[in-house]
Amino acid sequence: MSWVFVIGLAVIIFVLLAMVLKAPRSSWELLGAALLLGIAGYAWQGSPAQRGAPKPPAETIDGGKGAGDVAERQKLADSVPMSDRDLVVADALARHGQFADSAEFLRGAVQRNPNNAEAWLAMANSLVGHAEGTISPAAIYAYDQAERAAPGSPGPAFFKGLALIRSGRIDEGRKAWAGLLARTPPDAPWRADLQARVSELDGFLSRAQAAQ
Predict the structure, then answer these.
(1) pTM for the predicted model, two decimal places
(2) CA quadruple 139, 128, 91, 97: dihedral sign
(3) Which of 72, 109, 65 has its CA nearest to residue 90?
(4) Helix 137-149 crosses helix 117-130 at what angle (to 10 degrees)?
(5) In the chain, how long is the greatest CA-to-CA distance?
(6) Most buried residue among 40, 46, 186, 198 by CB atoms closer than 10 A?
(7) Can you tell me the distance from the alpha carbon of 204 to that of 27, in angstroms, rounded to the nearest whole number?
(8) Sign of the dihedral defined by the CA atoms of residues 171, 127, 146, 83, in that order
(9) Running along the chain, 212 residues long, what does each successive block of 10 average in pLDDT?
(10) What is the rounded distance in angstroms from the CA atom of residue 176 to the CA atom of residue 164?
């Protein structure tokens, strides 16, 4: 059936070129040869009988985790102006799960301004998202650069700890969160949430140790 379709399509194309588009009669032979060459190439390399097996894209459009991390980062960075064009574009990409594009976009931002702590942090989160939640040396470097550029910001330590925990490096993640909690002012708006997370993590570790 596939061959009937291919040959029929070739005939339709030839009629369209010759009769409708008024190709010169002297070129008909050349047109016919080109179509025959195309059919021969299909016969050589095509596999019309083989079932299709489309491969899913490396990154799917996802408004879940990406959007949540962007919102959490912006909440912790209430002192950073969100009018930064690079961050606006990169955050929009991350919200839709396009983490590789977001990280690549932010690479240019930190090259232009190495002291842009929020861009470093957003890039680190996008690198973790692109690796499906696994923290990489590149992401750790970006988190460290974000902390260097903004030593008093809670974002780098919080998200680095979160990425470590998601990657199974729970002790390291707990250490990052505990260090952040120790230097967090009592009236900081994020302190209660961080305290609850550390307590929950400690409870998990205690249960895991008791089960051994």
Answers:
(1) 0.65
(2) positive
(3) 109
(4) 160
(5) 88
(6) 198
(7) 78
(8) negative
(9) 56 58 56 59 53 48 53 61 72 89 91 93 94 94 95 92 92 94 92 93 88 79
(10) 9
Q: Find out whether 96 and 130 touch, Cβ atoms under 8 Å.
A: no
End-to-end CA distance of the chain: 63
Q: Which two tokens stand for residue 163?
A: 């990425």
**Tokens linked to 63:** 């408004």
Say if residues 143 and 162 touch (Cβ distance below 8 Å). Answer: no
Q: Do the Cβ atoms of 65 and 81 come closer than 8 Å? A: no
Nearest CA among 91, 81, 72 for reference residue 190:
72
Question: Judging by beta carbons within 10 Å of its beta carbon (0-12, 13-18, 19+), is residue 53 exposed, middle or buried?
Answer: exposed
Angle between helices 155-166 and 170-182 (to 10 degrees): 160
Residue type, 163: A
86 with 119: CB under 8 angstroms?
Answer: yes
Q: How far apart are CA 20 and CA 17, in angstroms?
A: 6
Q: What span, in angstroms and rounded, lies between the C-alpha atoms of 11 and 25?
A: 16
**Residue at 189: amino acid letter:** P
How many Cα atoms occupy the beta-carbon half-sphere of 69 within 13 Å?
31
